[in-house]
Amino acid sequence: MDLVIEKAAVLIEALPYIRKFNKKTFVIKYGGAAQTEDSLRESFSRNIVLFNHIGINTVIVHGGGPGISKMMAQLGKAPEFIQGHRVTDKETMDIVEMVLGGLINKEIVSSINRTGGKAVGITGKDGCLITAKKKLLKSSTSPTPIDIGLVGEVTEINPEIINALHTQGFTPVIAPIGVSDEGETLNINADFAASAIAGALKAEKLILLTDTPGILNKDGKTISTIRKDNYLQYTTDATITGGMLPKINACIEALDTGVGKIHIIDGRIPNSLLLEIFTEEGVGTEIVL
Ligand SMILES: Nc1ncnc2c1ncn2[C@@H]1O[C@H](COP(=O)(O)OP(=O)(O)OP(=O)(O)O)[C@@H](O)[C@H]1O
Ligand SMILES: [Mg+2]
């Protein structure tokens, strides 16, 4: 009986959030690191379907780092990362497009649809969604920027295709591949793609699901809040490194473009999206102005 009462209390706690988020847009970055188990993918899909049923316009942007690295290894190529970005030559770009835009994208779509949703998988090429230019990284030792190949940074988001899909009740599932003005295909870090899409849609929330409980401090404890005016301390003292570097930078960009709230949460916990959105405590790290 106690359990039943508790369940009812949970539903009541969710009610104000259900009201508040009706017709609002959530952009969810589904990290490759959080997609590794079938059961997690199923729980993720159920959460997305629930959001749609209560009238939240959901956009999913996914990564796929582990899957891409696995395929590269099978084809005899060693993955290389600089400042958390994958060095991408033409062969790697082809692998990214096949694995990210094909296999992983359709796995997510099919999982959501099996759970009762209406997902449609696209890449940034579809409907001219993502225009990008080649990204060069700043070097700490030389004035010459670092060339990491066919890696892009977003220059423009055209949200028409997303709006068209939402109007018809579909959930867009987006692989972060962009095209340059010259027609070159570019690999875009999914955190940046999600942040730019959230900015273009003026999303209520941007949620990044990854494989850690949030951003961790040097003692391994989750930092509950990071502000725009103090995030640099964590990057300069190397608390934040690797794949978390583009993530925090993408979050700061999203804040600058007017995204309401940003959360980095643990995608390895079943129903972590629900916990974040429908409970008072929240989980993970929030990034705020
Ligand atoms: N301070 C930090 N707190 C938490 N994780 C950190 C920190 N610094 C570096 N990391 C690393 O960042 C990783 C998360 O980024 P990563 O790019 O690997 O995953 P993702 O972005 O979720 O997946 P994908 O890149 O495939 O979309 C963590 O697994 C961890 O190794
Ligand atoms: Mg990443």
Protein model, in words:
The chain is α/β, with parallel strands linked by helices. The chain contains nine helices and 14 strands. It has one domain: Carbamate kinase (3-Layer(aba) Sandwich), CATH 3.40.1160. The strands form four sheets. An eight-stranded mixed β-sheet has the order 5-8-2-1-11-13-14-12, with helices on both faces. It is globular, with a radius of gyration of 19 Å. It binds adenosine-5'-triphosphate and magnesium ion. Magnesium ion binds at residues 31, 63, 65, 191, 243.
In CATH's first tier, which class applies?
Answer: Alpha Beta
Report the mean per-residue pLDDT as an integer: 93
Number of helices: 9
The strand line-up of the biggest sheet is: 5-8-2-1-11-13-14-12
What characterizes the major β-sheet?
Answer: 8 strands, mixed
Bound molecules: adenosine-5'-triphosphate, magnesium ion
CATH architecture: 3-Layer(aba) Sandwich
Given helix and strand content, the structural type is alpha/beta
The CATH fourth-level homologous superfamily: Acetylglutamate kinase-like
Q: How is this structure best summarized?
A:
The chain is an alpha/beta fold. It has helices at residues 2-21, 38-53, 65-74, 90-114, 160-167, 190-201, 231-236, 244-256, 272-278; strands at residues 25-30, 57-62, 81-82, 85-86, 119-123, 130-137, 146-157, 171-175, 177-179, 185-187, 205-210, 225-227, 261-266, 285-288.
Secondary structure topology:
Layout: H1 2-21, E1 25-30, H2 38-53, E2 57-62, H3 65-74, E3 81-82, E4 85-86, H4 90-114, E5 119-123, E6 130-137, E7 146-157, H5 160-167, E8 171-175, E9 177-179, E10 185-187, H6 190-201, E11 205-210, E12 225-227, H7 231-236, H8 244-256, E13 261-266, H9 272-278, E14 285-288
Parallel strand pairs: 1-2, 1-11, 2-8, 5-8, 11-13, 12-14
Antiparallel strand pairs: 3-4, 6-7, 9-10, 13-14
The structure holds adenosine-5'-triphosphate and magnesium ion (MG).
Magnesium ion binds at residues 31, 63, 65, 191, 243.
